[in-house]
Write the structure tokens for this entry.
Amino acid sequence: MSSTEARRSIATVCLSGTLEDKLTAAARAGFDGVEIFENDLVASSWSAKEISEHCADLGLSIDLYQPFRDFEAVPPAVLARNLRRAELKFDVMEQLGADTMLVCSSVSPDAVDDDELAAEQLRLLAERADARGLRIAYEALAWGRFVNTYEHSWRIVRRAAHPALGLCLDSFHILSRGSDPAAIRTIPGEKLFFLQLADAPRLQMDVLQWSRHHRLFPGQGAFDLTTFTGHVLAAGYRGPLSLEVFNDVFRQADPAPAAVDAMRSLLALQESLGVADLPAAPELAGHAFVELAADDVAESELAAALRGLGFAETGHHRSKPVRLWQQGDARILLNRTEPGPSGSASVGAVAVESADPVGSARRAQRLLAPILPRSHRADEADLSAVAAPDGTSVFFCRTGAETGDSWLGDFTVTDEAGPGAGVTGIDHLALTQPFDHFDEAALFYRAVLGLEPEPVTEFAAPFGLVRSRTVASGRVRITLESALLRRGEWAPGVREPQRVAFTTADALASASRMRELGAPLLDIPGNYYDDLDARLAPDPELLTALRQQSVLYDRDEHGELLHFFTVVLGGRVFFEVVQRIGGYAGDGAANSPIRMAAHRRQREARGTSA
Amino acid sequence: MSSTEARRSIATVCLSGTLEDKLTAAARAGFDGVEIFENDLVASSWSAKEISEHCADLGLSIDLYQPFRDFEAVPPAVLARNLRRAELKFDVMEQLGADTMLVCSSVSPDAVDDDELAAEQLRLLAERADARGLRIAYEALAWGRFVNTYEHSWRIVRRAAHPALGLCLDSFHILSRGSDPAAIRTIPGEKLFFLQLADAPRLQMDVLQWSRHHRLFPGQGAFDLTTFTGHVLAAGYRGPLSLEVFNDVFRQADPAPAAVDAMRSLLALQESLGVADLPAAPELAGHAFVELAADDVAESELAAALRGLGFAETGHHRSKPVRLWQQGDARILLNRTEPGPSGSASVGAVAVESADPVGSARRAQRLLAPILPRSHRADEADLSAVAAPDGTSVFFCRTGAETGDSWLGDFTVTDEAGPGAGVTGIDHLALTQPFDHFDEAALFYRAVLGLEPEPVTEFAAPFGLVRSRTVASGRVRITLESALLRRGEWAPGVREPQRVAFTTADALASASRMRELGAPLLDIPGNYYDDLDARLAPDPELLTALRQQSVLYDRDEHGELLHFFTVVLGGRVFFEVVQRIGGYAGDGAANSPIRMAAHRRQREARGTSA
């Protein structure tokens, strides 16, 4: 961390587990401090003193104790009870070594709508805190009974006029209400005691439920946190950037990768603010290759399918059991692995063409992507690779570089001429993500590779809803897919299969040629074409040809898509061939349920015949 | 089905899987008919004709083809396209043998706000339908662009005045908007072409999202479907009662139990309307016993714990490896099973005292609860038992009946006198439910046993949110708990442990006595008592005693709760002892996260020492 960068903190409520689990995960991900959520402390078997010592051992400061609620603007008897409660929490804070207590604006039925009274009682609390070397950060909850905007909380703090009373700003509470954050610049920096950051998707729902269940780390949602945080820093805030994210999925996910995801979100935010010292993301020109890991049974199946799609085996690796299959600029590496359960394949690696592979890897490492150790001979190219959240390897390479620098130099090239079927390159990949890693994956590809995320879409698939998000830049395009809910035993396959989509200039001609070559193409039922006729009324000749070739069709305001699929190969991979006409923007997600039902029938037919 | 009962149908969109899966599940659960959702048909490899034949084989009529959207109040060119689209769907319906098509009110940007035009164009559509022996059911979507109330859709249908045009009423669209359904009675019955039923929890969110993701089967949510359906029947509606439930969880759950759950919801609704011929639920007086299934290792652990809690082994079954442990009216059966992985126990059976065990079982069977075959000797009591959705056996019995009729007659009673520790009976059970079965379980206990469901609550537990709902009646009380999201590998144990809670009149005395007897009680950390002091400020002497005995405390507007726990025994069961003071209503759920964190520490401590 450079000395000009802000400190980075995380609230324990962001992570799953007991307090012990959370602190360990936060420290390992490189956080400087934590906000300790009251419930985590109360359930801990460590005393406040022991927690303080443990945090010190881990190199974590305790930046905030939270939350303390429903304090201000109450009748005298309630005030007396609240002050007693506060003093007992001050005892805890002294033991913790935490100097700032968060006080959320009241939602209590005891409170009254009286700014004067609120200011007076908060001043009293600040005096008590001050006497013990502590301070109070007052925060307007978006659903506070009387105080629910930062402007209102600032009026009360200003009126109270005590040096130990300042504001806590929380991006969710401000941006969820659509408040303009620009006026934050008018607040003196020394009155900004604390900054909590959370992103969120735009949802039309009760703001409390939205806040408690659907917050996200910065860069994963729809809020403009760069502008927001820019205002807070411009006002002179010098405290930590601290994450406070309530999220149902993160609450039950392994805290170790969740803490890394959280830290990555702050690093990317700091970069967008121009206050992080990260190497820029080198330009990516396209997909270099896709590596499929397959045991011998699955490799035969994949090789036969590629031959049917018009590919040729054009090379083999000089020291590893890896074969190169190629057609146009589409390159598939088949990497033979130890035998799996019954012929299993998966996408092992995604390789992108980088203008500066070493620079790409350096940036990835700074953004906490695990660097993969590569075993290679002295005369082989040193491919830079990192692991994506789902375990897929991501290679940065330059196929066109001088021999010796290009990964192609490691291959002995055979001169087999393929039959050809019109494939010119790789259009996109679709990688199914584990349930807990969907938002993390989008942020990973955005921050580490510099890809742009498109909006999240959802569709109803035969075995449950599927969420989909494409991250893309130029000719690199990766679609992330995940079940909306973690699947149980009923759904066939916990994870839907992955796909590699190839580009063609003429889908109907390619499909026809591939059928001649014996490609295992997926049959699409007649009902689909009857419905297509009713919905989009394509030209009757085109409709007949689509139906004959089992080619699917979609249309948007920019253009058209023709596409078709193979059956599932090696249990978890299939190929797609895509023709884009005009500026068609999507991936034909509307047709995914049709494809999924057809794949299910294929699996069942095999299950029956097996 | 008696001849006066309405036919029961279900929309295919309620269930997971392909169309084939859905039809099979609906038929097996006893539905008379189905609504076929367009997407299910389009993805099917069966032609419409084959679907029709398949449904006939399964004894299912096809009551509705749905949905057809965005038809009415459009410019002439769009109308021509829409009529072409409709004629193609009429072709499909002829093949299907379905005579009614659902047309939802338009959300299209092409539509205009003109009731006259809407009526005119719908009349045109009805004429086309009529010419083919079909009819059109027009439905106001709650988010329809111009038509979004049933009163408005009825004005348009009345104005169109065509015998082949009528209304489809959907309880969600009407009740979600807070419309008064009483005016439905003023609509002539012959103009009510179709009735779709869905319940839902009260959520403050966008109505479209609420409808698409969170609908429930009748009786599982907050809508008064009895009154609603009563109005529709009073108007003279004679079509099927048909379920149309979009729910994220049901969409990915096994369709076989989901269809049974759906059918049970309709049977219970019909009972509440007085149009179902079900035997009434006999009165339940309390818990008769709880049977814990345990292998020999776990049985020793449980027996030692029960002895520590003051129980005595007072009998053994005459022909089975089952031992009876008793204290006051609390009875636990330990049923020795084959050895599990490493000493495993679970709640095998829940037994309730029924005024009429045979009547209870007969009702359960009519409500599709699987009757469990019992092996018993000729001279043993024939216990009536059914299986709950999570597989737990539910016994109906009369402990106080004449010997020979009481299950106690099957036991040889020893005269061991237990040490006693103040336990007087069973207060409640908490049964953790599989993720997919939470709503089904609440409906099961309500409909089958006649228990009253309390509101659903949620709390943040260390490894994710937990949803909880108690079903109770008199002294029978069962708390259903489930993770809000299906847990992954991180959370310890896919299912939280189950508990049996005993009643005491003096928790502190019981805890003290049980410690003397060597009960394996759970230690509660000091932080909890510091926080309790700050929050509720109990009398200092009480606080000291609670802290000393690791007894937890809660308070509501009716009274107080003192309670404490054993460690987890046999991997999945623990005991609780509960003292209720005054009218305290809950189960101390606020303390559950504390207990869960303490249980986690216990598991970890064991893991380390093992």
About this structure: Chain B touches chain A through 67 residues (CB under 8 Å). The radius of gyration of chain B is 28 Å. The first strand of chain B starts at residue 8 and ends at 11.
